[in-house]
Amino acid sequence: MLEILEILEKNSRATAEEIAVMLGKPVEEVKEAIKKFEEENIIAGYSTLINWDRTEREKVTALIEVKVTPQRGLGFDKIADRIYKYPEVTACYLMSGGFDLTVIIEGRTMKEVALFVSEKLAPLESVLSCATHFVLKKYKDKGTIFEEKQTDRREQIFI
Questions:
Q1: CA gap 110, 29 in Å, rounded
Q2: Cα-Cα-Cα-Cα dihedral sign, residues 60, 66, 81, 44
Q3: Which of 71, 75, 107, 119 has the smallest number of Cβ neighbours within 10 A?
Q4: If you average pLDDT over residues 55-82, what whole number do you get?
Q5: SS3 147
């Protein structure tokens, strides 16, 4: 029933009835599958994707590359657990490559984000270094294109 998850990932507002029609399955079977996915934390939550650039609300998103010292017997989990509990942190990922954790945070201003990094994140004893990258513009997020290309609506005149 992975098809149910794929549908809900694209549209979390899809009802069990709509999904049943799309998949040609009985509604009760779809409802039971969704309930099981929720109980097993396969469906970990439902969210709405908002294009904040189209609102009056000021919002800054930053991606922070964090190098850490893993702790004996705990690896990266303990430091990641400490970092992702901050309310500013919207995502935290263990990475391969040149750094260990990607931390995505949101704030009202660049200064607010910088203060989070300098006062809360960088001073943590396992953190070796941080590199902060600010998101300047979102083109696509979670499979959704934020701005469609503008078409030229001028009328062509032939001489």
A1: 48
A2: positive
A3: 119
A4: 93
A5: coil
